[in-house]
Amino acid sequence: MSLSWINRGLASIRRNTALDLTLRYAAVFLLCVCALFVIVDRLLASSQLEQDQRLLDTWLENYQRLESQVGLHKLEQVIERDAAFFQRSAMRLELLDGGDNRLVLVQPEGWTRTTRLEPQGGGWFSQQVTRESAPPIELLTGSVALGEGRRLQLGLSAEPREQRLQANRQLMVQVMAPLFLLGLLLSAYFNWRALRPVRDLVETVRTVRAREMSARVVIRNPSSELGELAQLFNEMLGRIEGLINAMQQSLDSVAHDLRTPLARMRLSLESALTRDPREAGRAEGLREALLDCAEESERIEGMLRLLLDLSAAQSGTLNLQPEPVDLVELLQESQALYEDVAQDKAIRLRLEAPAHLRFSSDSVRLRQVLANLVDNAIKYTPAGGWVEIGCRQQGAVAELWVADSGIGIAEADQAQIFERLYRADQSRHEPGMGLGLSLVKALVEALGGTVSVSSQPGQGSRFRVQLPAPPVAGPEGAEMGGSSRK
Q1: Domain end among 257, 287, 317
Q2: pLDDT-based confidence at 478, cuts 50/70/90?
Q3: Where are the transmembrane segments (predicted)?
Q4: Sign of CA dihedral 186, 189, 193, 198
Q5: How would you classify the pairing of strands 91-96 and 151-157?
Q6: Strand ranges inside 327-476, DSSP E
Q7: pLDDT over 70 for what percent of the chain?
Q8: Rounded to 5 degrees, what are φ and ψ at 372?
Q9: pTM for the structure as a whole
Q10: Mapping DSSP to helix (H, G, I), strand (E, B) and coil, where does residue 50 land?
Q11: Same domain membership, residue 278 and residue 251
């Protein structure tokens, strides 16, 4: 039971990024504090030890110099005079002759015998002194040589040094503990504040999952990386919302465009099937019904083919078949194909092009581009207007255009008309799915070119396509380009 509770607690911590970061920071900070504590403690211990060694060195050097200058008898008198100080300072002095026999011993009351411990280097060694009704203590002991083989040993209790170190440790803990807690609180606050944009992002995603597409992330600091992420996320939401709205608006058009041929097919078949088998001309009626069904199915197939071509072009999987193409001939074909449609609407369809403009490209896809642009131009040009198609060569670039005197495109819509399923307000009354221009853009980019539009409402539009046009060899192997004529 306790293990599952711990696992749930760890899982909740991992889900709370601010708490997780705070705990990680606390662990790192605690390790740094402990390392700093150990380093400072070692430095202080080394400094205290050096101070004690310098103190003992000073006493030993003075006694050694005194013995060499005035003799042993004077030295003993000085030692007797300093005995009270040694006893108060927890120091032990021992004067030995050449045979290690004790001549003088000065130490605090209650100290009994000593035991020599390990050497500490540099002529220093440790001694342990037992005390009456008290735990033993350790002495830092130094030794100097005197005349006639005598030695003087002076030891200093390590207990005061340890007390000072303990006081320093307590002081460091008293200083570092509040600093650690303050750092922990500041870390928690800054982590919470830094991750607030992420929480806003999560909340926005939850709102979007609830189908509230108008939700946007609050941008608290646009100049930060998270602020930039929020801006990009809002832009993405805006594009998604626009696409969904466009899809919803286009579904009616798609449904209508599909419903009409399906209804015609159904009516034709019902009409043919309800005729009396003995009625004259029944076979001809069935034949006409089948022809109507074939025509409507071809229209449906064309819609589906358009959607498939658009998806393939936009995903980069469109199968292109480059071949020598004369762009002027393609323009002439488009002019001939749409001449009757233009005349029915009292629209002049004119061509402006050189004699030839040959380069390597996919003629089928170019026909699709021209068909969509010319069809759109005629569709949105009122009676009495004109539509112009043309091309020219500029260096290694072939440029073709389709211009008209139609209703034009608002400036706010010009940046979006090439998006899938987008339809400007003034074009919604016309039949269509909003895929023609997006297919044009996808095909042109698949061919390595660019497409642009310039238009003003009420003054017509001009679509310009620029394609790479490397020259191709003519019938006799010569490179051929375009010759200029109107």
Answers
A1: 317
A2: very low
A3: 25-44
A4: positive
A5: antiparallel
A6: 348-352, 358-361, 386-394, 397-404, 450-455, 461-468, 472-473
A7: 79
A8: -65, -45
A9: 0.46
A10: helix
A11: yes
